[in-house]
Amino acid sequence: MPSARVRNAVHYLYIITYADKSTAQGVLDQFFREGAAPVFTGDGAWEVCATGEDYDLGSHGPTLETINEYIARCNSGDLDPQTTSAGWATTEASAHGHVAFGEPNDTERSIPEPGNEFSVVCDIDKEARWMWYEWNPDRSAGSPFLVARR
Question: Each residue of 72-83: pLDDT tens digit?
């Protein structure tokens, strides 16, 4: 079980995601901060917490209250290890899953294939890489509501 960590939220960039379950599931983005280098998904020390919660399309996802509750629970490691990541997971593979980085945003393709499942997204730099939470390598199960941070 990951150790409980308490950190000041102003030191993190959080991305809240939930799956539409209709296509490949991942996140790709870039973030700009005044006077600092851009932050890209799939680069650096990203962590993810799989909550075990599921939201259907049209539900508008988790509320801000729910998001804040899960950030606190992820920090404390107070999550069921059978249905969640049991806290923050890093890129190191574990029984509770890990953050996976995929192809960069400059890999052209005409049809999805292993290792190149995602299409290029306009207006996002090529340094950004797709990332997702990998629980089972065969991708037969997962947790659609995720909190990622860096």
Answer: 999 999 999 988
User: Which residues of the chain are modeled with pLDDT < 50?
Assistant: 1-9, 139, 142
Predicted structure pTM score: 0.76
Token representation of residue 23 = 């296509």
Query: Which residues are CB-neighbours of 57 under 8 A, at least 6 positions away?
Result: 20, 21
Query: Backbone dihedral region of 95: left (phi > 0), alpha (psi from -120 to 50 degrees) or beta?
Result: alpha
CA 111 to chain CA centroid, Å, is 24
Task: Give the residues across from 49 on adjacent strands.
Answer: 147
Q: Please report, for the chain, the start and end positions of each structural domain, with discontinuous segments joined by +.
A: 54-113+132-150
| Per-residue tokens: 115 | 């290792």
User: Do residues 130 and 101 make contact, with C-beta atoms less than 8 angstroms apart?
Assistant: yes
H helix and E strand count, the chain: 1, 7
